[in-house]
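Quarterly update from the structural biology core.
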Amino acid sequence: IATVQQTARDRLNKNQEEPTILLECDATLLDAVQKHLKVYKIRRKVGITPCPDLSLWTILPFEQSSKTGSALEVNEKKVVVCTRDPRTDAMGWRLVLSKIDNPLDIVPESHLGEIQDYHRYRYAIGIAEGVKDLPSGEAIPLESNLVYMNGISFTKGCYIGQELTARTHYTGVIRKRLMPVQLGNPLPPNSVPEKAQIVSESGKSAGRLRSYMGDVGLAMIRLAFANEPLQLRTAGDARVQLKASVPDWWPSEENK
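Predicted structure, tokenized:
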């Protein structure tokens, strides 16, 4: 049985006179995002629809070097979107394709990795992504480094939380940041309590673990303790050595 269906690619390219935005979001928040956007649509003739016929891929560089900013060769005939990851060059490219297309046919000399490799990679360089790393209603934009990832504009119109965000930015008073952490030894999945406490060698509270995979993860760290040896409290009050680091892609004044 054959059916005729307008694909998302067709909808995006149908009429260039009508602005079209393709929004990427955490899949677990799809319904919530649609509901939120429809609240602010009011009476405008704006269509908000999911694109289940599309798939999203990340193309990571084999190694971190000056070459990460070079152009990417792709088969453009089958590409819906191919763009540099706007967060940092270290995250390579974002590629959107029809689900029926194989990315190996689109990007020459590439190979498929595992999703776990992707998460380990971004944890190691300090990139937060999704509701687990950035809990809704809890994560503060500046503490989560969104200004470093082109995630905040200080010149656009109003948005919820704008005054607090702008005031914190211009005063420069940020006492905690989400940072990449290296654990002393790999930890099995779900072996650490949610928001496990991180302490200094003297026992002072230094932060909370946000997410991890093996021996790398992301943690909200108090900057006063960022350069000290730290310990993660696990189940039964056992402790694992932990070290926070400043990512290379942060602005130079933060890399001191």
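The first strand starts at residue 54 and ends at 59.
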